[in-house]
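It is worth pausing here to work through a concrete case rather than discussing structure prediction in the abstract. The textbook approach is simple: state the sequence, then state the predicted structure, then interpret. We follow exactly that order.
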Amino acid sequence: MNVRRRLISGTASVATAALALGALSACSSSSAATDNANGTDTFDVVASFYPMAFLAERIGGSHVHVTSLTSPGQEPHDLEISARQTASIEESDAVLYLKNLQPSVDSVVAQSGVRTKIDAASLTTLEKHGTEVGGHAAAHDSQQSAEDAGLDPHIWLDPVRYAQVARGVGKAFEKADPDHAAAYRKNTATLVGQLDDLNTRYRNGLRSTKTKVFITTHAAFGYLAERYGLTEEAVNGLDPESEPSVKRVRELEKLAKADGVSTVFYETLVSDKTAKTVAQDADLRTDVLDPIEGITAKSRGDDYFSVMDANLTALRKALGAS
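Step two, the predicted structure:
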């Protein structure tokens, strides 16, 4: 992946989407859940990528129709909004997104007339973590405000923060579609309970380990590490598919020896080349730690919870949990 290419293509896609949105605004308007674009009483939700779609589906249940802007296997940070997707946002009852993760989505949503706009980032707290400032944040161009620059967007990898977002989404659904508010409250409570259980599994599973340090090629696990007393070391200043510098490999090799690190983690949506390069030079193993930005045939599970449990198993093995 190339950050410069991302910014250029992202800007072009935003411009195209903006033109499409302008053309639609003359003949489209936001619709209520009981009189939506499809002429049914289903609440139509457009979600920006998998973690948002998962929330919408679990909370909405049979009362919502969810469309994701990001296809399975697509890197969400590279999403370029099409004219058709712009139309789907404009015609939806609600859009659920994570501001500053996908700049093209932010731009279209800001200009859209959709009645219910739910920004997951506003439903919890965001922080700066590790190399995120030099990684994905570099792809967030001038649309991103100065005060938001460098904030880690990967809140869904912390079950506690994800539960906070779920509660906010549930309340937004209740307000936008009051006829089904009781169902949304019930579904939200069930989901939050499951996230609480997941938090307990992580807390207990990572309480006693030989080391608290893990190495990743993608600085996505800062919230998770913070929540459970761990330290994430990412391949500094590189996207997941780039060749690591000799200097950084040497730093990681020393760190691995000092802290008893055994494994370099990589993610499912990109090549394991970087992880193998670092692991070979530092005499370490490689394994998958999935940031769950999408579910594919390569995922170690078929939904958020099963992949999070697979991540816990991988972390326990790498950290020498007892």
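Step three, interpretation. The first strand starts at residue 43 and ends at 47. The domain at 208-319 is CATH 3.40.50.1980 (Rossmann fold).
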